[in-house]
Predict the 3D structure of the following.
Amino acid sequence: MTATNCIRSPISINFKAQVWLIDDDRELLGMLHERLSHSGWHTRCFETSEALTEALIEDKPDLIVMDRLMPGLSGTQLLEQLRAQGHSFPVIMLSGMSADHQRIEGLESGANDYISKPFLWRELQLRIENLIRHSHKASSPRPPKTIFWINKIRFNPRLLELRGPTGTILPISRGDSRLLTLFCFSPGITLEREFLCVGSGSLVDIQNSRSIDVRISKLRQLLNCCKSGSGRIIQSVRGHGYRLNAELHIEQTN
């Protein structure tokens, strides 16, 4: 396995990302603003949820670093509100609340990552880079009416269905559809677990969870119910991730 056939994260991001910061701790806010700006990102700072929501009327960030405990709306309440409004940009939640159930609450409110205070600056920097990079990969424009033929299985992401060679139709969830679509746009290429986790919209701590492996297992079972013949359509690549091992054709519909 060489680096050329495995999708993994480059060291730097080759565009000026907008990173917004919201925290009522002015000293921390100033430190983050200085360090993130020094890293080459455009930053905007907010001390209240009202100021942030007003700014979103005219502009949109590539990522938000959000404090959890703030006056007025808490970070979890604000994030739930933003997700309900359709905002999908990545969010890293910072908090001194580090118990397991508190981290889960933060992730369930819509955070893509959760970092406990005090934190290491380098770790925050790397997590920001990873989320921005994978967010832009996952949001690359794709034809809205694409149909994939995986061996003899017809996969229609728009209708959320798989059709086997004998005509058997199985429904596929939206999350599993996004996951399978990632494989279909990169046939034969090994996709790292982290990329699959973020690209398919998973809201879990990708560093500590094996949930993507469970989702892959579920997806394999669905494909096995449709296919004829032996052999795994989605193969494990030890130490790297997973890849689609199938004959693939892409059909554009009107």
User: Anything to note?
Assistant: Helices lie at 26-38, 49-55, 75-84, 100-108, 121-138, 174-184, 193-199, 211-226. Residues 1-14 have pLDDT under 50 and may be disordered. The chain has two domains: 5-138, 146-252.
